[in-house]
Amino acid sequence: MSHLIASQKVIQHYLAALLTEDESPEPAVKPALAAERKAELNKLLAQAVPVAAPAVVSPVIALKETPKPVVPKVAPKVAPAPTLSKLVEIAARASLEELQGSSAPAILQRDIPIAQRLAEPSPVATVAEKSYRHGRFQALFFSVAGLKVAVPLTELGGIHELGDINTLFGKPRWFKGVMLHKAQKYNVVDTARWVMPEKYDAIVEQGLHYQYLVLLGASNWGLCCETLIDTITLEPEQIKWREQEGKRPWMAGLIKEHMCVLVDVDALIDLLSRGLDINA
After folding, report:
1. What DSSP assignment string belongs to 123-159?
2. Which of 6, 101, 240, 258 is the one with CA 20 to 30 A from 116?
3. Using an 8 Å Cβ cutoff, are 142 and 279 in contact?
4. pLDDT for 167
5. How much is the average pLDDT of 25-50?
6. Of 65-74, 154-163, 169-178, where does mean pLDDT reach its minimum?
C-alpha cells in the first residue's frame, strides 16, 4: 500500500507541473499564486473519484476520407456511450481493415542508419494544422500510472489486448519489445517510462499493470496503457493548445477540465521512430 501511495504522489507532482507550466508567453505568475494553484491541483487529484463520462456520439474512426454526397441536414442522433469492450472491438476492427495485408517488419534501431537517426525530424503537421483543432472531435481517454492521456479518434490506429512481447537487445529502455498480433508486428512502448523517465523508479514500475496496446495512426507503434476510460467529445476551447513549436512536440495540448494530456500522434511517431524519448 505504501508504494502505491508514493507512486500516486509522483504522478500528482508530474501532472501538476504539466498543468501549471506556461506553454505560451504570458505575464509572470507570482510565486505565492503559483504555489497556491499547485496546492489546489494536488488536493483535487487526491480527492478525485471516477465520474460518469457525458453522453457521446458513437465513435467513428475516419482512417480514409471519401467524397460525401450532399444530403439535407437532419438533427444528429445521440447514441449511448460505448462500453469498453465495444470500444476495443470497434478500434481493433478498424485497425485490421487499415493494416490488412501489411507485413512491414518492426523498426529496429540497428536497421536505421546513423545519419538518419541524427537527422532533423521529418516534417509533421503542426498543432495549428490539425483538423480536430477547428471543431468538435472525439478522443479516447486512457490511463498510465495515474496519468490520463487522450488520443483523437481520427488518429487512433486501434486497440489490442497486450499479449506476449519479444524483447530486443540494444534498444532504449522504454522499448519493451515487439508484439505479434495476427501476423502483424507492433513496437511496444513502456508509456510511463517514456513520458517521465526521470521519475520512473522501482515504486512506479511495481504499481504498473499494463493491459492494452493503443496503436498510433497507421504506424506499427503502440502505447501500453493500464485502463481504457472512455471516448469523450471535446470542443477546441476546452483545450490549452501548445503554441510554441519545438517545446514538447509530442503534446498537442492540455485538457484541464479532465486533467489530461492530448497527444500529437504524428509528432510522437516521429520521436519514437528516431529512438528518442520525451527529453528530446
Report:
1. P---GGG-GGGGS-EEEEEEEETTEEEEEEGGGEEEE
2. 101
3. no
4. 93
5. 51
6. 65-74
CA separation for the pair 146, 58 (Å, rounded): 26
Q: Which amino acid makes up residue 219?
A: S
Place of cell 479516447: 140
Contact, 126 vs 98, CB < 8 A? no
Would you say how long the chain is, in residues? 280
Q: How far apart are CA 77 and CA 52, in angstroms?
A: 20
Q: How far is CA 39 from the centre of its chain?
A: 26
Q: Where are the alpha helices (DSSP H) in the chain?
A: 2-20, 31-47, 84-99, 114-118, 191-195, 202-206, 265-273
Backbone angles phi and psi of 45, in degrees to 5: -65, -40
Residues 6 or more apart whose CB falls under 8 angstroms from that of 27 comprise: none
Q: Which of 210, 206, 226 is nearest to 3 (CA)?
A: 206
CATH 2.40.50.180 fits 52-63+78-273, yes or no: yes
3-state secondary structure of 153: helix
